[in-house]
Amino acid sequence: MDASNYLYVSALLFTIGAVGVVVRRNAIVVFMCIELMLNAANLSFVTFSRINGDLDGQVMAFFTMVVAACEVVVGLAIIVTIYRSRRSASVDDASLLKR
Amino acid sequence: MKWLTILMVLPLLGAAMISTLSKANEKAAKQLALATTLIVMAATIAMAVGFQRDNIDLQFVEKYSWIPSFGINFALGVDAIALVLILMSTILAPIVILAGWNEAHGGRWSVKTFYILILVLETMMIGVFAATDVFLFYVIFEAMLIPVYFLIGGYGTGERAAAAVKFLIYSLVGGLLMLASIIALYVMSGAQGGHTFDISELSKLTMSSTTQNLLFLGFFIAFAIKAPVWPFHTWLPDAAKAATPGTSVLLLGVLDKVGTYGMIRYCLTLFPEASKTFTPIILVLAVISIIYGAFLAIGAKDIKRLIAYTSISHFGFITMGIFAMTTQGHSGAILYMFNHGFSTAALFLVAGWMISRRGSSTIADFGGLQRVTPIMAWTFFVAGMSSLALPGLSSFVSEFLVLVGTFTRYPVHAIIATFGIVLAALYILIPVQRALHGPTTPGNETLSDLNLREKIAIAPVIAIIVVLGFYPAPLLKVINPAASHVISQMGFTDPAPTNGDK
Amino acid sequence: MTTSTSLVYLIALPLAGAALLLLGGRRTDKWGHLLATGLSASSFGVGAYQLLQMLGRSAEERPVSQKLFEWIHVGNFNVDAGLLLDQLSICFVLLITGVGTLIHIYSISYMSHDPDRRRFFAFLNLFIAAMLLLVLGDSYLNLYVGWEGVGLASYLLIGFWNQKPAYATASKKAFVMNRVGDMGLSFAIMIAFATMGTVSFTGVAEHAHHTSEAALTGMGIMLLVAAAGKSAQFPLQAWLGDAMAGPTPVSALIHAATMVTAGVYLITRSNFVFDAAPTAQLLVVIVGAITLMFGALIGTAKDDIKKALAASTMSQIGYMILAAGLGPVGYAFAIMHLLTHGFFKAGMFLGAGSVMHGMNDEVNMRKYGALRKFMPITFATFGLGYLAILGVPPFAGFYSKDMIIETAFNAGGVKGIILGCVTLIGAGITAFYMTRVIILTFTGTKRWDEDAHPHESPWLMWLPMAILAIGSVTSGFLLSRGDALVNWLHPLFAHHGEHEELLKPIVVSGLALTMVAIGIAVAFLKYSRNEVAHVAPENVSVFTKIARQDLMQDRFNEAIFMRPGQALTATLVATDNAVIDGTVRGIGQMAMGSGSALRGIQNGFVRSYAALILVGAVALVAAIWVVVQ
Amino acid sequence: MTFTAPVLSYALLSPMLILLGGALIGVLVEAFVSKALRPAVQLTLTLGSILLSFMQLWRIRGEQSLTAAMGSVVFDGPAALLQGSILIIAFISVFLIADTENFTALAAALPGSDEERHALQSGNQVTEVYPLTLFAVSGMLLFPVANDLITLFVALEMLSLPLYLMAGLSRRRRLASQESALKYFLLGAFSSAFFLFGAAYLYGFSSSISFSGIREAIVGGGGNDVLLLIGIAFLSIGLLFKVGAVPFHAWSPDVYQGAPTPVTAFMAAATKVAAFGAMLRIYYTVFANAQWSWTPVLSGIAIVTMLLGSLVAIAQRDVKRMLAYSSIAHAGFLLSGVIALNKAGLDATIFYLLAYGIATVGAFAVVTLVRDSSGEVTDLNRWRGLGKRSPFAATTFALFLLAFAGIPMTSGFIGKFSIFSAAYESGAKGVVIAGVLSSAIAAFFYIRVIVLMFFTDATEDGTSVEIPSILTRATVIIAAVITVALGVYPAPLLNFITDLAIFIR
């Protein structure tokens, strides 16, 4: 089976994620979409690693997961604080700063 | 002896000493400033004595490496043109301080700040004319704006903030255009054997005519704004109206000269071809400035604005003389720069005294001053006469040289410009009639005449105006070699008598 | 050419006087006027001395020159402050200093009550110095200095009582219209330099013959413009009438005897230009002819005695200009009339001053009358001047004016006849209006205001008048005896072949006298027989009305120059603010506007920021794609 | 199978390791030291470790052209300079951070809750900001020396994550502060996703994650250009986001305004240095040979960035937002240095980064000084007449503004000149012209602020300027002195940079 199909999948996932970030309101969901994009990137890493026949890509993928995990920690921390002080997780409510 | 550096350092020393004074001690600040400027003047004259007339090379040359990685040097040196202008600036400085003894009061900041700014400005006025390194010139050209900006905005009257901003923005825009050209020159010099900012080196650069034209414009517009040449002039009346008389004198008398000086020193030397290309357009602008400035002066209701507009007209003459490309025109223009410094100084200082006494700068508020304050009135009259270039006063020599020099190559321009002398009669005599003649208008009966300090301040100016009117030879002897050198460098020779092509 | 070291004193003495009195201030009030008079007199002394010296030398040795100092040397433009005293300028030197001194003396008494008498004398000295520089300068540029110098002095003296707004305006008007003339002079100088490379009289004289006629015509016309400005010739004549605002001695010295004749000097001095430029010369004649009629006509309608005299001055100078325009034959006569006119017109003006002095400065002749009895000396001197200007033999005018009329007729062809007739008619009209002046002022019944107590003026005033009167009796005879003046000036001008005489001199004199007689007769019929109205009657011919308004000259100038000028100024002021400054402000507004518009992007919604990034990403890829393709 | 232990050459990593060490200790201090001592200890610890790492950096600056950690980190001249700049900026920023007045006593507490009030009254001030700063700094140090995609990505996150948190720590206007944190975080993460995706495609193109490998692949050609171009594009997005270039700038005004001013100062200055450092390395070495593809696009972005930044800044009424937009404009200027792609450009950019960074810290430091009872006053209209009430604040702020405007005698002018001339030399005339033009526009609003401070009189609700803490004052003075010094006599630094700044490939 041609490996490049995985690339198409990853591109698709990435796009879905990107669009999701733009269209969804709930901060958590937005964040999930970003995670989706990261994993799309991971998928293409792995695919390329397969195509190129070396392991660097997979190593990279592992690192990405770790970093993503850290991001989750920080991200959730922020989102939770906002939620507590605003009683809402909608990113649109947080628009004091503008112009 | 490092004359030029000394000249530049002295005012700074003075400023430093003043800054140590207490705010309350205003008198000391004034006296210190006056003393400093007097010393500088003496030093300048001493230097000028040692100047070799017939040597067309730069003299008193100094050169210190400043930013080697860009090939920038702190390089100074003067030719006749620069020398004359430095002389003018340093003579005007003490006069301005003495004349405007009390004009720092009523400013936003302390008196001592005012004099610190003035002295810093003097250093820059000397440096801008003495710089022989384009980068150094640009740095001073721009940095100079800041003290003036604060002098106008901090100590001026009326719409001072707005005027200051207008002045600064105009100048900065011009400066940035010049910066673009300078960058281009710098890069080209790098491509053609070593980054440098030395004028003489840069003048050797080879560049396509298109490039040369563009770079020329970059410089010229900057200078045309400074000078100011129509249509880049609208900042001047506002600035002159808002600024204190002393500041206005330095602004119109010295700073604006940087524009016309730059045209000679940079536009002509660096871009001879482009200068030739643009000469027709520039001459037209110059003629427009002459006539236009005169008409607006006639229409002016405010005495300071009026003087500003007359200057626009005079700068038209200077620009015309520069680009007429004849020795007469050129020498005339340079002499004109010097003379204009003093005739404008006279006008502005006396006007300043009138205004400070009357508390208004509207011409209509004066009237019959000749009866109330004869000395002040007659001083103003003499200043006015020199501004309309009455023979026997200094401006006549320069103005006539410019006209005759232009006529030999561009008769039409000269003829149109000559109509300016009729308009000049109007724009001087109208305020003279309104302010000095006629019955004394209510509120003026008690005005006081000039006091001793003011007399002492104005006397040398009038003296210079009269003496140079009858005996300009000493200055011309200095100027001529430089002028004809520029002309010949441009590859021009004075048109020979045509005998009407018979 | 002989050189001298003493010429400079001619100018230096009065100049020193002016400087001293102006800078000295009130301290010099007590003796200032005496000093000024003394200096002007001593200047006359120097002049007389120079004349004696000159007489002692042969014709070609007579011109004297003195180089004072290097003035303007730039490239091939070289002008020194140099003086030239030749047969022509000596005439002027003596006229200026002589009449000048007399008028100084007169003014001592005339101005004795004026607080600013010292300043007045300072200005008089300044004028003398400037006028001498005008006639002594050895190049057009030096002349130019004197030329504007006298303009300045005239401005200061016309406006001497400038607390009266009208007077201030008059002085301004005079200066500005003179500046128009000066402009012509500077054009002439530029042309001279551009074509001949020199501006000195001798230099131009040398080059003139191998310079194109076109250039010379241009220069000539410009010189004519200058002359018109200074000498109140058509079309720049309008200022002279108003110039009477000045104190009467000023009118006598500056606006009758000396300054206004500078135009004649300029044209005669530039004979080498005009002789080589027929067109310009013709224009000179035309201007002269027009002005002489113009002035004469105005003179007939003026009730203000000074204005009447001023009009007559205008017309008399018209004669001189016309004569100068006739070329070599005319120059000498122009000068002769200039000198005689200097005497009698100055005399009459001083007379007028004396009358005003007696009548509390009343100038309206309709309020005079029968003054003969009360101021006999004034009447006598004035009368002699009257006879002189009419050209009654053997008075001065007879010699000078008849010569001009005669030469005019002999100019040849139609031109000659027209000019001859014009000059003749002019003579007639002159007779009319001068007689009118005499009748209204000295004869008839009293029409004074109550408070008028006419009395004869003190000797300080009538002495100069008397001396001038003598001059106006004798000068003509002396100057023309054995063609004295003609021969004296002869070396300066091109030699000219004898014209065929159209009319014998005697015939011309006959015609002239007839015209004069008619003029006198008409005047008598009109004014002596019937009572003169106290105020100018309104039921007069349109012609008179127009004449009273100086033939509409002011209206013309206002309509053609002043109003359009003011309109233009207003427009430019508006444009400067609206268009030029507006553009600048507009650019500022634009930046502001676009700035606030772009702020809109920053709407605060994180999702739209993300969208922006997304769009940017796509755009970036697209851009790179485009670039690569 | 033999297993060789990796050579790390710790010497070269030591600057970063020291900071990380400091950070970890800081965390422990936060946990165990009594709240009375905590601030002092944290401050000394932070400053100490920064100082130490700087000294270490100075020691090793000579040992150029060495790679560490199996070539995943490269240490060359530019690296030394950039890390040095970052450390200097960080050092003076910490002075500002030390003014705890700006930070919430208890980030976890609800805004306005009793909990918070109590924490405040009992002086129970948490100081986690110090270790966070140190983490961020170490990330910034790593960013420009990273030599493969992994390190680059890790460094990116290492410097970003602490900043996300720090942005939310403001004591006053906490909602805004938290909001800015959220925005910064979401958008940051979003952009790093693009970054990562780009990295993946570069890997796909070159079958290598090391810069040298990618570069060789580009030089060698023959790869699939589509992958390369997408890679370049997406990787660039990540970097451009960090420097705040249009259209990836939207976050910066909001975050600059919302974050505590000391943090704003720190990230505005230091992040730019780090990000541009990384950009320089990547574009000058890795992508150098693909320049035909990206220079035009980057030029376009540079131009838009300059103009938009300057234009919008005119319309701002809040000091911090105005500075934010001005920093956007400056990002544009700096980009023209990247585009130049020549030695002059490299030197110029490095000089500019340091000069601009220091001026920025100084400017924000002044902002922290201008306060009233309810904390900082950032509304420009209330800055009227500041010159009267606080000459020190007004004068220094004016100086920094003039430096931003590029007026001669200030570091800003030298920077502008050198960077524009470099760009011109590379033939990017359009960029230079746009730069000059936007400088003119920019001058307009800088001057407007100066007028506000000096030439207009204060409104009745005059802003009171609190006596600044010694440290803040020190920051301002140091920044001012350096700004002037670099403007008047920049030769030494320029020479130093010129000698040192050579990338090893």
Class of secondary structure makeup of chain A: mainly alpha
- Order of strands, widest sheet of chain B: 1-2
Largest interface comes to: B-C, 66 and 60 residues
How far apart the termini of chain B lie comes to 56 Å
- How many extended strands of chain A? 0
Overall mean pLDDT of chain A: 90
Topology pattern of chain A, helix = H, strand = E: HHH
Counted by DSSP, the helix tally of chain A is: 3
What is the molecular shape of chain A?
A: elongated
Bin the strand percentage of chain A. Answer: under 5%
Elements of chain B, N to C (H/E): HHEEHHHHHHHHHHHHHHHHHH
- Low-pLDDT runs of 5+ residues of chain A are none
What oligomeric state is this? heterotetramer
Structural class assignment of chain B:
mainly alpha
> Mean pLDDT of chain B, nearest integer?
91
Description of the structure:
The complex is a heterotetramer of chains A (99), B (502), C (629) and D (505). Chain A is built from 3 helices and no strands. Chain A has 99 residues and is an all-alpha fold. Chain A is elongated, with a radius of gyration of 17 Å. Chain B has a domain at 272-494. Helices cover 73% and strands 3% of the residues of chain B. Chain B has helices at 3-20, 26-49, 80-99, 111-130, 134-143, 145-155, 160-191, 199-202, 209-226, 235-242, 245-270, 272-299, 303-323, 327-358, 369-372, 374-387, 394-409, 411-436, 452-470, 473-489, and strands at 59-67, 72-78. Chain B has a two-stranded antiparallel ribbon. Chain C is mainly alpha-helical and 629 residues long. Among the domains of chain C are: 278-537, no CATH class; 557-628. In chain C, strands 1-2-3 form a 3-stranded mixed β-sheet. The longest helix of chain C is centred in the last third of the chain and has 47 residues, at 553-599. In chain D, strand 1 (66-68) and strand 2 (73-75) form a beta hairpin. In chain D, helix 2 packs antiparallel against helix 3 and helix 7 packs across helix 10 (251-258). Classes of the chains: A mainly alpha (99), B mainly alpha (502), C mainly alpha (629), D mainly alpha (505). Chains in contact: A-C, A-D, B-C, B-D, C-D. Chain C binds chain D through residues 588, 591-592, 594-596, 598-599, 601-602, 604, 606, 608-610, 612-613, 615-617, 619-621, 623-625, 627-628, and chain D through 182-183, 186-187, 190-191, 194, 225, 229-230, 232-234, 236-237, 241, 247-248, 250-251, 253-254, 292-294, 296-297, 300, 308, 311-316, 441, 444.
